[in-house]
Amino acid sequence: MNNLLAVRIRNRMGDFSKGQKLIAKYIEEHYDKVAFMTASKLGATVGVSESTVVRFATEIGYTGYPELQQAMQEMIRNKLTSVQRMEVTAGRIGNNDILDSVFNQDIDIIRRTMEETPHEDFYRSVDAIIKARKIYILGARSSLALATFLSYYFNLIFENVLLVQSTSEGEIFEQMIRVDEQDVVIGISFPRYSKKAVKALNFAHNRGATVVAITDSALSPLALEADNLLLARSDIASIVDSLVAPLSLINALIVTTTLKKSEEVSQVFKRLEDIWDEYGVYEKVDDKSIEPAL
Questions:
Q1: Could you give the CA distance from residue 74 to residue 33 in angstroms, rounded to a whole number?
Q2: CATH dotted code for 118-277
Q3: What top-level class would CATH report for the domain 3-76?
Q4: What is the pTM of this model?
Q5: C-alpha distance from residue 33 to each of 50, 76, 92, 154 (Å)
Q6: Which residue from 21, 32, 37, 256 could staple onto 41, CB 3.0 to 4.6 Å apart?
Q7: Beta strand pairing status for 210-215 and 161-163?
Q8: Are 3-76 and 118-277 equal in CATH topology?
């Protein structure tokens, strides 16, 4: 268990009520489960009231139960196995409708991301990207989908974008061999964090490049190398990585850079539309064909 949390509990143990001692013992033995329990569920599990659980959190120095829960989640963020994530997901959804539960979890993730993302870092990142000689984008494992999406649109806006292929560490460093202080490197990774992404950002940082990390927490190993840290929540207990908030953040990056380069980008898109029409890239849809039948 997290040393700080353990110390807080140990220091207050003599002052706890009988019910609070039950909570403390259960947390010490099952903190990985408690991290995803509501206050009412924890209370029911150990046989105390929800208000007793809330008082316990404040007794050990947190502003409330949500802050205590967040501390436990941060503690296990990079430790849950796929099997454990399945168990936690099943427990959280219970008998609720799965579709509605997933939608509601994603809505909450985006809301928390909007509240927590530092605006200053976001706009500094945009300015650095626009000024960069070359933009390197790296995402490993499930984050590769985000990196590919960002790379696709940035290649329409800029002439100097490289999606770093992360098949092996050797290939990563070969592709980034010329990176220096004139460049921007955007690294994307979420729990469980990719070692390749961490090493690539360390490589870029040591060579003076501006490093933009898109990750979930200031405790993420990517944050150590970042000049600008863009935080986007992911649901660490989901069976699959919930990437709705990172994708929304990346959408904001694309929109902001596009608007800041609007005149230049507008000309590029006009030329693209001509090319797409000439070569029939997109299927034309007749308006009449999509009218609802009467």
A1: 13
A2: 3.40.50.10490
A3: mainly alpha
A4: 0.70
A5: 17, 10, 10, 41
A6: 37
A7: unpaired
A8: no
